[in-house]
Write a structure and sequence with these properties.
- The chain is α/β, with parallel strands linked by helices and about 325 residues long.
- The protein has two domains: about 1-120, NAD(P)-binding Rossmann-like Domain (Rossmann fold); about 120-265 and about 290-310, 2-Layer Sandwich (Dihydrodipicolinate Reductase, domain 2), CATH 3.30.360.
- It is about 35% helix and about 25% strand.
- The protein contains nine helices and 14 strands.
- It has helices spanning about 10-25, 50-60, 70-80, 95-110, 125-135, 165, 170-185, 275-285, 295-310, and strands at about 1-5, 25-35, 45-50, 60-65, 85-90, 115, 140-150, 190-200, 210-215, 220-225, 230-240, 245, 255-260, 260-265.
- Helix 4 packs antiparallel against helix 9 (about 295-310) and helix 7 (about 170-185) crosses helix 9.
Length: about 325
């Protein structure tokens, strides 16, 4: 049995993470760290405002870090050094150096560090990868992902995402990171990155749009385009090969269109559950961890180079 401490009681935590921990049969929630301890009451566990006090009193086996990005690295390393395994929200850290320190701390302490890139668990993604290995689309050469929505943090909801000192950046950090990580999962090690970031519509401290071009060692080129200024929502994801293509749009839906036809392969009803389950099985049952600190390090590598390339432009 894995005893969990959760840091943060925000939108994702209440809708997905806490229900996933409660549903996972080898997991038990034992405490919550939050600015308002009363938020822990509905879950029947003690609430804490101080992380070190929580670690000392409930002695968790694992910690889910769901705080704003600027707290990921320090909180993760505190937990690792206290002997806990850590599953951290994305993006992993504010920059590559922080992410690298997190990985080094996990390896030095012998603890497991996972990052919640849950789209790696999507059944249709694994099906698409299997079809690629079978040569259904020939040699993959180009991939494209978009995520467009409207976000201005109305009524202060998730307003910290517009603060570069807390979030690192705008949609590049918040939503492109998922797509970048998934391309890394599918295509392997990235080699080169170019990018353009801008405030095309909204005058905020972080960008409201970002376009990233990644070239992989296997010569696949991937384009990730994310925007917070679109009234039309888009969630596109496709992989183009020399003799066909795989269409996964919308990425969060069940549909996979291949040269062989259309398949419906839905994700779990709680898209965080397979990620939590995989992490628990990796720690307790020695199963492969789909999204580790070391694999997530490459996403921070791409993000940092995207920012630097935009500054050079």
């Amino acid at each position: 049995m894995m005893k969990w401490l959760v840091i943060g009681v925000g939108d994702i935590t209440t809708k997905r993470v806490l229900p996933a921990i409660q549903e996972e049969e080898q997991s038990k929630l034992v405490g919550i760290v939050t600015r308002n301890p009363a938020k822990a009451e509905p879950y029947g566990v003690p609430g804490f405002t101080d992380l070190k006090e929580a670690l000392a009193k409930v002695k968790p086996d694992a910690v889910y870090v769901a705080s704003p990005v600027f707290m990921h690295a320090p909180q993760t390393m505190i937990c690792l050094r206290e002997g806990c395994h850590v599953l951290c929200e994305k993006p992993m850290a504010m920059n590559y150096a922080e992410a690298e320190m997190m990985v080094e701390t996990a390896e030095a302490t012998g603890r497991t560090l996972g990052v919640a890139y849950y789209r790696r668990t999507y059944p249709k993604v694994h099906r698409a990868m299997a079809l690629m290995r079978e040569g259904v689309i020939g040699q993959p050469v180009l991939a494209y992902a978009s995520s467009h929505s409207w976000f201005k943090a109305e009524d202060e909801f998730r307003s910290w995402l517009l603060d570069p000192d807390k979030a690192g950046g705008g949609p590049l950090y918040d939503i492109a990171s998922h797509r970048i990580d998934l391309f890394n999962f599918i295509f392997g090690e990235p080699a080169r990155v170019r990018a353009q970031l801008s405030n095309a519509v909204n005058n905020t401290e972080v960008e409201d749009s970002a376009t990233v071009l990644i070239e992989y060692l296997n010569n696949v080129r991937a384009i990730v385009d994310v925007r917070w200024h679109s009234r039309v929502e888009r969630d596109e994801f496709r992989i183009i090969g020399t003799s066909g293509e795989l269409e996964l749009s919308p990425l969060n839906g069940p549909t996979l269109v291949t040269p062989e036809g259309r398949e419906e392969i839905p994700p779990h009803k709680n898209i965080h559950f397979p990620c939590v389950e995989n992490f628990v099985e990796a720690v307790l049952d020695c199963k492969p961890l789909l999204s580790s600190g070391r694999t997530a390090l490459w996403t921070d590598w791409v993000t940092e180079r995207a920012v630097k390339d935009n500054l050079r432009a």
